[in-house]
Amino acid sequence: MKACRCHPVLNRQFPTRIDQGGFSRSRIGRVTDHLLVSTVPLLGADVAARIAHVQTRRWISHPTAEEAHEAMHQLLERPPSLRPRGLLLTGAYHNGKTMIIERFAVEHLRQSDRQRVWIIQTREGAGMAHFYASILAGLRAPQAAGWRSLARAGEQVDHLLDILKPRLLVFDEFHSALRGRRQDVKAIFSFLRRVARVHDISPVLVGEVAVYDAIHDTEEMGSRFDTLPVPRWRYDEDFATLLDSLEASLPLAEPSGLSREPMARTIHTLSEGLIGEVVDIVTRAATVAISRGEDRITADILAALRYLPVSKRRNAALRNEMT
User: In sequence order, what E strands does the chain have?
Assistant: First the structure.
């Protein structure tokens, strides 16, 4: 059988794992066998509809995401504990951490009659006042007049936790809470320990590597958390699977061969292994292809994007024009 890719590492056909609500890939014909069943009807849609589909945010499953979901599921279903463990989900920016936790929370709501997973968007700003405000907003609670009183805000948070009885509190962008004075950070960690003990809550801290450093600054806090890194993507078979999955969702009649050399290598280099960048690159390229009336993404289209990797944007020509 002829290999589907030219690169020796990327030479195996993988199942597609991308969806907007449980789609599955199926071969329905020679012309469209590279597409999801749900994507095929869009080939006959107008340009605006096809571009809107391409630009729609979609869930992309991958091994790290599956591992994170399993870890959070274990915390969700654990027996009661006086010292419940937490989870650190840390890694580079723009690499899909927020989508991982949002997907888990949505799937939990679909399967449960009571919300036990709450996502807290950690606010910028140091100190417990900002931290309490983040929690109250995440729990969709009106902030009482005089919320800046720490004692009053703390009482309100405890009251809500006692009523709602969450099992997981997921703090996204938790590194935002670590930019204050050392005593402020210690107060936040003390709060996490207390609510874990009093309310039997497992905290899930999501953010950049600074979160890992701060938690493991002391053995006492480090002993309370398991760590799951969300690393940049390597140029390997998992990356090929990701590109196959993305291509299957694009309403382009002809295969683009994104997972073949040299396209795969180009996308990996431009994205620097960040899944958010990969999606941006493929989305922009597909949008250009559809706008031009072309049926696939080509190397010329990728080049026409003039896409700059994150690490090179600070020294870009555009920046120089501002001085």
Answer: 18-19, 59-60, 86-91, 117-121, 168-172, 202-207, 225-230
308-321 pLDDT, tens digit each: 999 988 776 666 77
Tell me the pTM. Answer: 0.84
Q: How many CB atoms lie within 10 A of CB 162?
A: 10
What value does the mean pLDDT of the chain take?
Answer: 87
Q: Does 78-230 carry CATH code 3.40.640.10?
A: no
Please list, in sequence order, all residues whose beta carbon lies within 8 angstroms of the beta carbon of residue 83, skipping any fewer than 6 positions away.
196, 197, 224
- Binned at pLDDT 50, 70 and 90, residue 145 comes out as low
State how far the alpha carbon of 36 is from the alpha carbons of 25, 42, 200, 248, 280, in Å. 5, 11, 43, 5, 20
- Residue pair 62/99 in contact (Cβ under 8 Å)? The answer is no
Domain ranges of the chain: 18-60+234-319, 78-230
